[in-house]
Design a protein that fits this description.
Length: about 180
């Protein structure tokens, strides 16, 4: 049996992301940022194991690289040179446009993601699934509620790309209610 994705590509993307994110930490923790990328890739790989996708390598590469343009000094040209046009298009779509007002960034990103193959859609679903863990203690209730509402917008917009991942995210959204109470 062969792997449903290119393991060499996975390792190239893993090393690229690990070196570019360097000493970054997962916000609100001491964990290296690469742990977040690994968790997103795990969600994508679990989805690829139960659903059919035309280009699993696109999903895997985008999962590992999805924050490189947004959160590091990596340029789109560098991603394109290392991983090709399809991957850079996915990573750019998954990156928020910092030039837009914060309130418009998510809607813009979702619009751009929807122009990509569904392999890119599942990366956004996986990213938010991973992020629906206990919020940082310093987040206000309003910020927590807004984050949960954003997750609902994401799953409503992109959930058709993967019934299994959409169901997993919806479950995490429901459990997030537990973080919306004081005490």
């Amino acid at each position: 049996m062969t792997a449903p994705f290119d393991r060499d590509l996975y390792m190239r993307a893993w090393h690229f992301a690990a070196t570019r994110h360097g000493a970054q930490k997962v916000p609100g923790s001491d964990l290296p940022y690469i742990t977040h990328l690994g968790a997103v890739a795990m969600e994508v790989l679990a989805t690829l194991a139960v659903e059919e996708f035309a280009n699993p390598d696109l999903a895997v590469a985008c999962a590992l690289l999805h924050d490189t343009i947004e959160d590091t000094d990596v340029t789109a040209d560098e991603v394109a040179a290392a991983f090709g046009a399809a991957v850079v298009a996915g990573v750019v779509a998954l990156s928020k446009d910092a030039l837009l007002p914060k309130a418009e960034q998510m809607v813009d990103s979702l619009r751009r993601i929807k122009l990509q193959p569904r392999e890119v859609w599942i990366v956004k679903l996986a990213d938010r699934t991973v992020n629906m863990e206990p919020p940082p203690a310093h987040w206000s209730m309003d910020k927590r509620r807004a984050y949960q509402q954003q997750a609902i917008v994401i799953v409503d917009a992109l959930g058709s790309a993967s019934p299994s991942l959409a169901a997993r995210l919806r479950g995490k959204i429901a459990r997030y209610d537990g973080y919306l109470t004081v005490g």
